Amino acid sequence: MATFQTLPGFREFYPEDLARRNHLFRLWRQTANTFGFAEYDAPVLEPLDLYKAKSGDEIENQLFSFTDKGGREVALRPEMTPTVCRLVGAKANALKRPIKWFSIAEFYRYERMQKGRGRCFFQFNADIFGEPGPEAEIELIALLVQCLCAFGLTDQDFYVRLSDRNLWFYYLEALGLDEARTRGVLGAIDRYEKYGDDAFKGYTETFGPLAPELKTAILDFLQIKSLPALEAKLQTLGGEKLAGRLADWRKLLGALDAMGLARFVEVDLGVVRGLAYYTGFVFEAFDRKGELRALAGGGRYDDLVQKLGGPALPAVGFAIGDMTFALLLEQRGLMPTFVQAPDVYCVIGGEAERQAAFGDIHALRAAGYRVDYPMKELAFGKQFKAATESGAKLALIYGGDELAKGVVKIRDLNQRNEVEVPRAQVAAHVRDFFSGS
RNA sequence: GCGGUCAUAGCUCAGUUGGUUAGAGCACAAGAUUGUGGAUCUUGGGGUCGCGGGUUCGAGUCCCGUUGGCCGCCCCA
């Protein structure tokens, strides 16, 4: 039993685990590139104030934070958004618009671990800065969908719930609520799906009972599940702000439809996201069966860059976490098993043969082929077994007979046939084999 | 932070009302096997029974504590 254990909630990646992780990263990166997003990275350790400024002191409970040797209050990053806002804010005027950036990075949160949640996890983050209209949301939701579809997931496996915090703000304003009450109601809406009427308890305790006609109006709004229903509702209210939001909704859903992605997206005003900094459209991706926690989440945060010391700069972004996503892929049988197989395995008779083999082994490796060989002398039978188990397609046989004749026997491990090739032509033969297959 | 549950070999697990030196399968390694395939047989390495204390002639087994895993709640940037 090992004396030292991994810290709770932290993860170790043995080769098979890392292969799966890399698979996620590879396809995410590839997909982001096809959408024209540029990759960036940033420090894991940040000033604690970067997170305090955004969300208040109570966030500190879930931060890995400490005082460094220089007396600075620092924290391991719990998310990317503040960091990327700082990066973009610092050079905002020099960056070509639109700014489309993505990253794949590890984050840390000091919380109780659970299925799909640990104290460290990876996220794919994508953000667009400098675009105030729904064009940014169009691009990001399309990217989000493709980041999941790239793995073979379909609209049978997941969907994106789309909502709008500004719509709620304007709607509740039209109903006569002030800002504090509006936030209280949004909190209740966030919990309504889970708790039903109990979700309004917190609001009632702070502001007193909600007038029945107000509650009805709110629950009515919550029932809206389509654009036509939304249009019908808003027409009865009128108002410039709400009309503006409706135009954005039409544009966003129209574009997603034109991309053929409408089947992935559902209008669901019950999504408001707990995060205080969202200002417009918000969206979350879930598995269709509803068994897992959210796969991804994001939205518009037009005020955050400025709040963190940059210029006023509209922004939209989302993140996909690696843990829940990997669970979904495994459930659907879409997580491949990765074998790290060499192209060529060398079967070597003895010490003299080994010396001869080394020259070819190194030359083949330098030419880009994956070549492996047994480190110790082994009986031929064992070596052929090892060659088969390794998954190699070719075996190069360096035996006493071959050495004497100046040849190498090359065996096709799948076809089970072999040819003798002069030593000087081994590299050429291997190249022909792999370029032909 | 709260509640439930579990912890024996690298993995999956047996282990009798508390009783000799804690077992199996898989995996790993060696041999049978000095020139041809995922087989078979034989053998081997590997354990402070999570950790600490208590009860007892005797604890993997019972009791208390603790650490860690899993599940749920809270939270979820």
Can you characterise this structure?
With 437 residues, the protein is α+β, with helices and mostly antiparallel strands. The chain folds into two domains: 15-331, 2-Layer Sandwich (BirA Bifunctional Protein, domain 2); 344-436, Rossmann fold (3-Layer(aba) Sandwich), CATH 3.40.50. It is built from 16 helices and 16 strands. The strands form three sheets. An eight-stranded mixed β-sheet has the order 1-5-6-11-10-9-7-8. Strands 13-12-14-15-16 form a five-stranded mixed β-sheet, sandwiched between helices. A three-stranded antiparallel β-sheet has the order 2-4-3, with helices on one face. Helix 1 runs antiparallel to helix 4, helix 4 runs parallel beside helix 10 (240-258) and helix 9 runs antiparallel to helix 10. The longest helix has 20 residues, at 15-34. It is elongated, with a radius of gyration of 29 Å. The two termini are 47 Å apart. The model has no long low-confidence stretch (mean pLDDT 91). The protein binds one RNA strand of 77 nucleotides through residues 1, 5, 8, 51, 54-55, 59, 61-62, 78-82, 107, 109, 111-115, 117, 273-277, 293-294, 297, 319, 347, 349-350, 379-389, 395, 397, 399-401, 409, 411, 413, 416, 418.
